[in-house]
């Protein structure tokens, strides 16, 4: 097993290559040993009972040894009835804590900070999961099929979801994670509240951006109050939704200003949603994809306005790409796909070794299928790594998508059976 890379933090200077491997003190006092973060990737590897097991531990031990300064888990659900997929992990008030403690220990085993990403998918819940698709206003998802009919949330639902995030955050820290990240990007519940297209409310939770951001801010407040002071708090936010009339860059500027009024340690910037999956590169023009750092242009203004350190994720694969991001004033470079392909990518960057080649493109003509196939390829890599301890650097997206469909059918039955027991024992 390789030794933890404490040497990744020894150099400091104005050269972005050196800055990349220099420590970062976050506003709340936590220190990241370098500026490379593993961005969140839903692993789809929950054991029966929607809990982590040896596979997730193996996966995170690999990343822990790979030299990143921060590891953010795949999104963990705060509500068992609202899942992004049937093999998602749930950390609600009833989940047993020990499996999460073992997961946190694996993630921390190399000296990196380990944050759990917490998510409520809102209306982005597939109908076949049999759950509940909460949403700001009951507006259905456009242009993408298979989602459950959204239900507009009332005040009790809003209070409930705030409490769920706080409970999950407190339990994540109790399990040993060093921080949590609230997912407010990619079209999930908090991103829906931020979007004028999905949020048509006329009460205090809708209207101008300050009111559309209220649910996120209330959750930040409740999560902060539920955690000990040493725990770090991050938020993942879209630079934009890339939809006419949707959440815009100016909105993101305002939201980071609002977040700056609270003890938030890091804002990660991404983009897109189920309606416009640009976070996976789909639908972006060729020059943007070729340049790496898809959202860098949009991030400039947000970084300039942000009182909170910013992490930027999306398309970053090379050390040159990472340096360019730092030059723009970004504090932390977020990497997802390339770190799935090469868990020791930070170590390789440090030693001047090239990273993995991009994954092959899907043959699917439509953007949504191509994007799903890319994600399926990454998930296939994660599953293989979790089983064998060695990451395959490439995968066939079309074959991975077909495999995913078969695996999903089996896991769907398992999840639905579990949900019926989980919710009936809660009520009984
Ligand atoms: C398989 C897969 C699962 C993902 N799951 C999540 C997730 O749970 N939460 C999240 O915020 N982003 C998730 N993402 C998006 C990544 O964090 C990241 O924003 C996106 O992949 C772009 O970065 P990359 O080009 O380095 O992969 C996922 C991406 C992939 C490929």
From TrEMBL:
Domain of life assignment: Bacteria
Residues covered by the NADH:flavin oxidoreductase/NADH oxidase N-terminal domain: 20-348
Region (Disordered): 347-368
One Pfam family here: Oxidored_FMN
InterPro entries in UniProt: Aldolase_TIM, NADH_flavin_oxidoreductase, OxRdtase_FMN_N
Keywords, comma-separated and alphabetical: Flavoprotein, Oxidoreductase
PANTHER family xrefs: BINDING OXIDOREDUCTASE, PUTATIVE (AFU_ORTHOLOGUE AFUA_2G08260)-RELATED
UniProt protein name: NADH:flavin oxidoreductase/NADH oxidase family protein
């Amino acid at each position: 097993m390789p030794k933890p890379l404490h040497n990744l933090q020894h150099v400091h200077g104005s050269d972005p290559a050196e800055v990349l491997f220099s420590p970062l003190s976050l506003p709340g006092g936590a220190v990241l040993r370098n500026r490379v973060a593993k961005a969140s990737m839903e692993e789809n590897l929950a054991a029966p009972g929607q809990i982590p097991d040896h596979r997730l531990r193996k996966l995170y031990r690999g990343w822990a040894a790979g030299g990143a300064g921060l590891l953010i888990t795949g999104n963990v659900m705060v509500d068992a009835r609202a899942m992004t997929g049937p093999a998602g992990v749930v950390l609600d008030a009833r989940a047993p804590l020990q499996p999460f403690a073992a997961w946190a220990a694996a993630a921390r085993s190399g000296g990196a900070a380990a944050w759990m990403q917490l998510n409520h998918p809102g209306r982005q819940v597939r109908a076949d999961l049999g759950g509940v698709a909460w949403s700001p206003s009951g507006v259905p998802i456009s242009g993408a099929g298979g989602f459950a009919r959204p239900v507009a949330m009332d005040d009790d639902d809003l209070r409930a979801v705030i409490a769920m995030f706080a409970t999950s955050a407190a339990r994540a820290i109790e399990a040993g994670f060093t921080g949590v990240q609230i997912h407010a990007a990619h079209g999930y519940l908090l991103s829906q509240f931020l979007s004028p297209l999905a949020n048509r409310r006329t009460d205090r939770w809708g209207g101008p951006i300050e009111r559309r951001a209220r649910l996120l801010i209330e959750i930040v407040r409740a999560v902060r109050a539920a955690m000990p002071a040493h725990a770090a708090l991050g938020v993942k936010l879209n630079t934009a939704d890339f939809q006419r009339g949707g959440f815009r860059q100016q909105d993101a500027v305002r939201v980071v200003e609002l977040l700056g009024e609270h003890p938030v340690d890091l804002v990660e910037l991404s983009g897109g949603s189920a309606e416009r999956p640009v976070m996976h590169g789909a639908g972006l023009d060729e020059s943007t994809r070729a340049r790496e750092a898809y959202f860098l242009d949009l991030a400039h203004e947000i970084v300039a306005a942000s009182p909170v350190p910013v992490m930027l994720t999306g398309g970053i694969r090379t050390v040159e790409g990472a340096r360019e991001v730092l030059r723009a004033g970004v504090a932390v470079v977020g990497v997802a796909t390339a770190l799935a392909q090469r868990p020791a990518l930070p170590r390789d960057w440090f030693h001047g070794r090239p990273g993995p080649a991009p994954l092959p493109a899907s043959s699917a003509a439509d953007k949504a299928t191509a994007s799903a196939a890319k994600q399926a390829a990454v998930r296939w890599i994660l599953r293989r790594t979790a089983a064998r301890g060695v990451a395959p650097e490439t995968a066939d997206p079309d074959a991975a998508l077909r495999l995913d469909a078969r695996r999903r059918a089996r896991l769907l039955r398992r999840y639905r059976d579990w949900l019926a027991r989980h919710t009936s024992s809660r009520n009984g």
